[in-house]
Each structure stands twice: as C-alpha cells, then as structure tokens.
Amino acid sequence: MKFSAQLIMSHPKHQNPLEYRRLLKLAREYRQKGYNVKLHPSPAELPPALAKCPFDLIAEGKDKVVAVEVRTRENLTLNGAEDLRHMTDLVHQVPGWEFELVVTNPRKKSI
Known about the structure:
Elements: H1 5-10, H2 17-32, E1 36-39, E2 57-60, E3 65-72, H3 73-79, H4 82-92, E4 97-104
Parallel strand pairs: 3-4
Antiparallel strand pairs: 1-2, 2-3
C-alpha cells in the first residue's frame, strides 16, 4: 500500500495546547502501566511499514505496541479522516501493533 503525501502534510508539526496536555497525560498513564513511551517517534524508531506515519506517541509493552494519535474535534474535522484511515490500515498490517485515536475537547465554560 502506498502512503499518501497528504498524510504527512496534514499532520500538525506543533499540537495545540489541549492536544499536547492530553498527550502528556497519556504518556504518563502508559508509563504507569509499564510501557516504554516515545513521544513523536522518528521514522527510524518505527517499523519500515510505518516510517511515514507521524504518530504522536508509541507505547511499547511486553505483548504489544500502541501507536497513538491525539486530536481535538476541531483538528479531526480540519485534517479530515483520510489520514487516520491510512494510519489505521498500516498499523493493522504490523503484527503486535494497535492504533489508538484519542479525541479531546475543551471543557465547556459554565455561564
């Protein structure tokens, strides 16, 4: 399967503060569960089939590796879902790997 250039270009280089806070919280949660966590892994840290995937986090455990993408609802719709489908399809082709999409939203302000 070929990887679209759009996937690479549509991924934000710098996450918004809400996504970044959620990413740090996820990293802490995975570490507490015994996973080895890498934020924004480089292509060299990924299997060749996933080298072009701009994951926010990978969590390596004994029996599996979880590739994580964090998005706000706004960025989910701005970036579209096509890149997420490509990531999911590619991850499912690598034995022992799972894909997790985490959607985070701002807290509603009370009036």
